[in-house]
Design a protein that fits this description.
Elements: H1 2-9, H2 11-40, H3 46-71, H4 73-83, H5 86-107
Helix pairs in contact: 1-5, 2-3, 2-5, 3-4
């Protein structure tokens, strides 16, 4: 458990997990809206289309940033800075990291 605690203490791991959470939630919302419309054989309303565009774009941007952190870390940081997402992501990262560390301490 102490090794898991050390892994969760790493800021880069927490940031990657926070990005993964955002990407998975965005992708799941798009899938939910799209699949419900397909199963009911109805067209999407304007609001649902807008949600799909916004959450789809968010999932795509998060996927690009996650790939960038794996392949080109410097470019991913520059993209985050250009989009103005560096500080909101840091705040989310601290929140996710606190939650992970709380859970690991709970399991100890």
């Amino acid at each position: 458990m102490s090794e898991l605690y050390q892994i969760c203490l790493d800021q880069a791991v927490a940031q990657f997990i926070a990005l993964a959470i955002i990407g998975l939630v965005s992708g799941a919302w798009v899938y939910r809206l799209w699949s419900n419309a397909q199963l009911a054989h109805v067209k999407l309303t304007f609001g649902e289309n807008l949600q799909i565009y916004i959450f789809g774009a968010a999932a795509l941007i998060v996927a690009m940033i996650m790939f960038g952190y794996i392949a080109f870390p410097g470019n991913a940081d520059a993209l985050m800075e250009a989009l103005g997402l560096k500080y909101p992501l840091m705040t989310l990262t601290h929140f996710v990291q606190r939650g992970m560390l709380w859970f690991v301490r709970l399991m100890m």
